[in-house]
Amino acid sequence: MCFVPATHELADKLPAVSGSSGRLKIAPSQTEKDERTWPGQVFENQALSYEEAMLEFVAASRKQVNKAEPDLPATQPTDQEAPKAQKRVLRQEEMQLRAQRRQVRQQRKLEDAAWEQARETRRAQEQAHRSLSKPERRQQRHIRQAREELWQGVREQRRSTVEHRKLEDQVWREKRNNLRERISQFPVITAWIAILVVIDNCTRQCLGLPLFVTGPNVTAEMVVEALQTLLPPELRFLIPDRGTHFKAKAFKMLMLSEEFIHVLIARQRPQSNGIAERFARTLKEWLKDKVWRDDQELAELIGQFLDEYNDRPHQGLDIPGLSPNEFAKRIWLM
């Protein structure tokens, strides 16, 4: 099982992904691989004696275990985490920033409501004062003066609050833009398409490449339905990857009905099924300079690739120079 993006443009680079476990896993970039460090690297230094290398290894191991990162959150990704996990952390930070912004807005609503209430009270007091006669106004002159001084203090506090809000807004925009810029550096892939690779190890003939628009959510029943139409009746051995689809009850029922032997490959050793893995690599290399905007366009490209692959000479066959289709015909004539 391999995975490709649901859409692709020439300017986009196909991300390195793995589907050998039956699940979509985005591989780390070459830069991330180059930046990885581990204590065992000290043994690569040939100038060190065994004792010196061991002492440096012990020191490096202790330093790695005791290394503290107080400024980093518990969910901070390490260099070994996949870009998908790093992007998820940034999304979480963005959600936290958005939640904080909502709290600030709610607090500001309360403050604005209090300010409007104070203005309404002020207007009512001024209107009541204007309705008084001149002698009554003179009698309440000191009260009005004290009230005016209090109002001036409230207005000054309001101006200070508005200025403080401007600074808060500026800091929030900078944080938001920084997060968006960091997120934009990751490949924008919102949907994936799963491709089931069915290839004959003897003839190198590709029997089919069914697509599943459900991508990582493809089910064992979908895989079994595709295999029922593609597997030849004379099949004796089937060598899938160790994906969950090939361990499900639906696949076991297919194995019993078609009477083939399920060959398990070694864990974390895709080279155990090297022909299929190399075919998936060839397919992705062919697709990297192609453009598709939906699954139908991708299906047309897959059909074109299938014809080209099965009809072109293959050096890995027992008779070099023959195509998988021609080699399969000659086997049936034997």
Low-confidence stretches: 68-81
Radius of gyration: 34 Å
- CATH fold-type name of the largest domain: Nucleotidyltransferase, domain 5
How many structurally independent domains?
A: 3
Q: Could you say which structural class the secondary elements and strand pairing correspond to?
A: mainly alpha
CATH 4th-level superfamily of the largest domain = Ribonuclease H-like superfamily/Ribonuclease H
How is this structure best described in words?
By secondary structure, the protein is mostly helical. The protein folds into three domains: 38-78, no CATH class; 83-184; 192-333, Ribonuclease H-like superfamily/Ribonuclease H (Nucleotidyltransferase, domain 5, 2-Layer Sandwich), CATH 3.30.420.10. 55% of the residues lie in helices and 7% in strands. It has helices at 30-35, 50-66, 83-130, 134-139, 141-184, 220-230, 249-258, 274-287, 295-311, 324-333; strands spanning 2-5, 17-18, 25-26, 192-195, 198-199, 206-208, 211-212, 237-238, 261-262. The strands form four sheets. Strands 1-4-7 form a three-stranded antiparallel sheet, with no helix packed on it. A two-stranded antiparallel sheet has the order 2-3. The chain has a two-stranded antiparallel ribbon with strand order 5-6. Helix 3 (83-130) packs antiparallel against helix 5 (141-184).
